[in-house]
Design brief:
One of its GO terms (biological process) is regulation of DNA replication. It comes from Methyloceanibacter superfactus. The chain is mainly α and about 100 residues long. The protein has one domain: DnaA protein, C-terminal DNA-binding domain (Chromosomal Replication Initiator Protein Dnaa, Chain: A), CATH 1.10.1750. Helix content is about 70%, strand content about 0%. The protein contains five helices and no strands. It is globular and about 40 Å long.
Length: about 100
């Protein structure tokens, strides 16, 4: 998921898991990645926080920021594409595991 988010928002994939905030663009892309991990992957706020080395309240804030900004049609379109891509990846992994 991280490579897709990094590509869509034109940031280095390593910035998404960096311990520091980095650029505003990278911080926003990280918020998107946390949002997708929570909403699409169904991970708890605590689980997402562990993946991104952030507190669960930071993840909750990220999700609120993304939800608030979905009023922007361009951003909403990007998020819809990412949501479909992540969901397809989850389905593919589940299918593959079922074949074992």
């Amino acid at each position: 998921m991280d490579p897709a988010v990094a590509a869509v928002f034109d940031v280095d994939v390593h910035d998404l898991s960096a311990a520091t905030r980095r650029s505003p663009r990278a911080a926003f892309a990280r918020q998107v990645a946390m949002y997708l991990a929570h909403v699409v992957c169904g991970l708890s706020l605590t689980e997402v926080g562990g993946l991104f080395a952030r507190d669960r309240t930071t993840v909750a804030h990220a999700c609120e920021v993304i939800e608030d900004r979905r009023d922007d049609p361009e951003l909403d379109g990007r998020l819809e594409h990412l949501e479909r891509a992540v969901a397809a990846l989850i389905d593919a992994l589940a299918w593959h595991r079922g074949r074992r």
